[in-house]
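Sat 14:20. Reprocessing the chain from the morning session after the first attempt stalled halfway. Input below, unchanged.
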Amino acid sequence: MKTNQLFNDLTQIVGKKNIITNTENLKKYNNDWRGFYNNKSLCVVFPDNSNMIKKIVKYCCKKNIKIVPQGGNTSLTGASVPTYNDKEIIINFSKLNKILEIDKSNLTILVESGSILANIKEYLDKEDYYFPIDLSSSGSCMIGGNIATNAGGINALKYGSMKENIIGLEIVTGDGLVLSSLSKMKKNNTGYDLKSIICNSEGTLGLITKVLLKIFPKPHNNFTFFVAYKDLKTCIKSFNQIRELYYDKLESAELIPNLSFEICIKNNFLKKHFFEKKMPWYVIYRLNLYEDKTLFQDIFEKNFELINNNVNDILIPNSINQEKKIWKFRDDLVEAYKIEGKIVTNDISIPLDKMIDFFNIAKKNIKKINSKIKLHPFGHIGDGNIHYNMILPNDVSNGTYLKLRNKIYSYVNELVEEFGGSFSAEHGIGQIKKNSLLKFKSKNEIDIMKKLKKVFDPKNILNPGKIFDA
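Finished this time. Tokens:
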């Protein structure tokens, strides 16, 4: 099919202002956030309603044109950018961004899938309600992409990942069929739960157009405290004690190595260390409170004796501003690492009781691969999801970096499997982890996934080359 005809036909659907065809302007949408992928696309279209998406998909199905769904393009696995050259169009969801309805009786909010996560949270905050999913990319990622990857984030400890916070979805399948399941009933056992299949499918089964989310009354207060530990064993023991004491309140527990402070200070993301005496490990804790904060702090200080033996130092913010600085420090980590060097990222989950052994073995063997590697494991210790990241010097050549990255990925994933963990805890598979999926998932599991793909997307036009090659 001639590209001019394609552009004319798509323009008829979305309008002249909602299509980009210029090669230079397409680069922004073709390139992933990390800079690993820079393939080509034919064009980008920006539908602003569900009906447009249905028409685009039906047209592409008829003409056998591949589609890449794209939200904020914050995927860390290459899931939201093209795989092939000049064979795909991108559907960007940024104009599908309306907040449609808040239902305070049923504790739900209905939004379009291109709504930015932070905007949803800010809207709810003004209404005294709360949506708990919280990511470093909240200011740019979109709710449809969060669902497509089953995003987790810092509050999954209490509230679960994205799939635990969805009540209903509307999607368009690969042949243009609209499936709408937007009942507000939290108990609805009427056949297969299609939303659970769509969640974590990375745009390969259907394009999400509307989302019905579970919301919560806004906590009256948050209580943050920052704890320093002499070693990982003490850290995990302390976390278990704090979880037992505050199980109903504990929202976040974020593991931070001391290297984080050094890198953030060096690269001007932080003015000075939060603690006078440096320790190897730290955890930022946050509790949700539905009671008076001052009264709770009195209780907390009395209970502190129960955990004091495992704590080397503790910082309780003396103001909202200081609390914000602590969490901004956590959010800034990845950006600081990008300046510091070339990052090798691993989004893994490890059972908490096996984490110390995993860290010790991994550190020993990774240093053998390359002695210049700076190990930087951080993340959501509460649910075992650790971003087991490494930093290589910027002067390492791209060729050497890629060889080391692939070798490290292979080693870490093998070790994770030995420890009964997951090589992809919350970022998905995309393009970068396809080989690992084929290696660690059984043939029967892969076969079932491919059969599902065939049902939802019979012509394989939706996000081809992601998760597996259909």
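The chain has a mean pLDDT of 95.
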